[in-house]
Amino acid sequence: MTERSNFFETKIEFLKGVGPQRALLLNKELNIFTYGDLLQHYPFRHEDRSQFHHISELNELMPGAQIKGRLKEWTVTGEGFKKRLVGTFTDGTGSIDLVWFQGISWFEKSLRKNADYIVYGKPTLFGSRYSITHPDIDPLTAENANGGTWQPIYPLTEKLRKRFVDSRAISRMVRTLLEMATPHIREPLPDSLLAQYRLMPKADALWSVHLPPTQAHLQQATRRLKFEELFYNQLRLIKSKILQKNEFPGQVFDKVHLVKQFYDKHLPFDLTNAQKRVLREIHQDFQSGRQMNRLLQGDVGSGKTIVAFIAMLMAIDNGAQACLMAPTEILADQHYQGLKVYADLLGINIGKLTGSTKKRARTILHEELQNGSMQILVGTHALIEDVVQFQNLGYCVIDEQHRFGVAQRSRLWAKNERIHPHIMVMTATPIPRTLAMTLYGDLDISIIDELPAGRKPIKTVHRYDAHRATLFGFLKDEIAKGRQVYMVYPLIEESEKMDLKDLMDGYESVSRSFPDVPLSILHGRMKSQDKEYEMARFVKNETKIMVATTVIEVGVNVPNASVMVIENAERFGLSQLHQLRGRVGRGAEQSFCVLMTDFKLSQDTRKRLETMCRTNNGFEIAEVDLELRGPGDLTGTQQSGIMDLLIADLAKDGAILKEARLSAEAILETDPELATPPNLAIRAHLNSLRQSETNWSRIS
Ligand code: ADP
Ligand code: MG
Fold this sequence. Notes:
Layout: H1 6-9, H2 19-30, H3 35-39, E1 45-48, E2 65-77, E3 84-90, E4 95-100, H4 104-110, E5 115-121, E6 123-126, E7 129-133, E8 136-139, E9 150-153, H5 158-162, H6 167-181, H7 191-196, H8 202-210, H9 215-247, H10 257-266, H11 273-287, E10 293-298, H12 304-317, E11 321-325, H13 329-346, E12 350-353, H14 359-371, E13 376-379, E14 393-399, H15 406-413, E15 422-427, H16 433-439, E16 444-448, E17 459-464, H17 468-480, E18 484-489, H18 496-513, E19 519-522, H19 528-539, E20 545-549, E21 561-566, H20 574-581, E22 592-597, H21 603-614, H22 618-629, H23 631-635, H24 654-670, H25 677-699
Parallel strand pairs: 4-7, 10-15, 10-16, 11-13, 11-14, 12-13, 14-15, 17-22, 18-20, 18-21, 19-20, 21-22
Antiparallel strand pairs: 1-9, 2-3, 2-5, 3-4, 5-8, 6-7
Helix pairs in contact: 8-9, 9-24, 10-12, 11-12, 21-22
Bound molecules: adenosine-5'-diphosphate and magnesium ion (MG).
Adenosine-5'-diphosphate (ADP) is lined by residues 269-272, 275, 298, 300-306, 428, 452, 557.
Domain Helicase C-terminal: 474-632
Family: Belongs to the helicase family. RecG subfamily.
GO molecular function: 3'-5' DNA helicase activity; ATP binding; DNA binding; hydrolase activity
């Protein structure tokens, strides 16, 4: 994210020491096309080459050690895979082995016995003797005898290494470039921010991130570059949010008779404080005269639907219509059935539109929507089709947003050209705050962080496959009490066949152990009609155990199901485990989640299982998930906004992000167009970033 000027757009092949062939490699392997790209190819760690260690000081915890000494002799031993060159290296305090498995003949030719070298590598203990495998090795010279600097280690590929483009080669290119570039580097952050957060100037930061004189410099440089990156990321998102707000008016819904009536006469429970707070937030948006774009996050079972419904009442009270879009027929049907009970009490006309709605019913529906006599429409994707026209659509709710794209959101907008409907996206996949700020920075966010009173928390346990008999005994008891059970198997695309086999084996074993119990089976290879049929049987309590892959619906509500067994739990991510667990715990009974695994488990897996057993809080789980997996995996999609980040890490840089966001907000609050003199430079830089982003998309 360097200043866009001709200098930084110079093609990388023109850099001294690169040339056309290496340039091609850099293009292909690292996406480095220009000088600017190279400067932003940040090292991911550094090795301390500033000091020497004695062999007598080595220990296994050292990430790497630099030693000055003499290579006494070497031998080549072993056959095939195990063939290796082993050298004896001493420094007067002790002796270690240097080991090479690759490039043996090259080293035999170029190393000299009884010559002095500097080596660097990670010491490993074998018996009582240390060895370093594939050390960096350089002949001792007058220049390197007193130690070097912190050496950058860059992301590389195998192909680059084979062509001798290693971290050192990159580092040499970067140094050459920095020497020329320094006079061209302009400061993209205003002085006020540099002072407020004590940030290093840009040019210094670029030098120090690549070639830090000390570790302290490296830390300061990294913080500074992360801040800049996140500051511009937030600036862009907040700016587009402001623009949207100013550009698009929204209908004003200020009458609340219906809401009052519903509240006083029909609401079967007290709303939680979190639900009330969110309703106030929505109500404020509805009165603002601006179009609302809001994300409603709430854990499974937190009661998002009733909030959506009460907000619909605000729209209807003011002469507008509302719709709710769900990702599947089953979910649409459940929402329809649930809301119809309330709508009937209030004399509101509610309809359902899905792919399987018959033509006749459809015609009537279309007409009622168009003449305004139908106030609420619940449906699937079917409701965004162009033939579906409303008289005055004022409010759209999208449930379980991760299955809907931005494109679909905008098609809903277009359902009311005169004045776009307010939009609320609901998701049960909690996203950590840091991630939400970048992923959904252009939406307003509401959070329901409280479950309705009286819910019994789901009891979660981890069991090994060896204890299956006990598990089946437990399931029998629960079924005898009238409950239903889910048994879920993983489904990962690469090994679909294997998964299907696991599922079928599981189904067989369950059928044998529960001969008198009606079962359902559900997996991705089934026709969608068959899936719906099986799911419906389970919903109606005709079957007691649902053996399924993860295709079972997010958000489906079977209050009578009280046990969730997750097979091969080690193969699921945390959020996914939590989502699946959310299928139970919806009724009055105590619910259980059983995580089944093999004995052998990685450390990460243990942490996931331990987290699941410890807490039911989706936000807490999301934080751990972000820590374990990093932001890219967590969202599951290549959402822009996080994939652009080159140096900041959303899992770790929450504190910097917060500062950057506050700074961006403060600046935009007083000068939303960035049009006053102190902010003109910021605007210019922001625009230059936009341009280089388009370049990126062209390339990749
Ligand atoms: P989700 O947020 O997962 O979509 P739902 O909206 O389906 O959750 O709500 C789950 C259940 O909780 C529903 O049966 C709903 O009627 C009930 N519910 C919602 N809010 C409350 C409340 N404040 N008190 C008691 N029950 C509630
Ligand atoms: Mg829901």
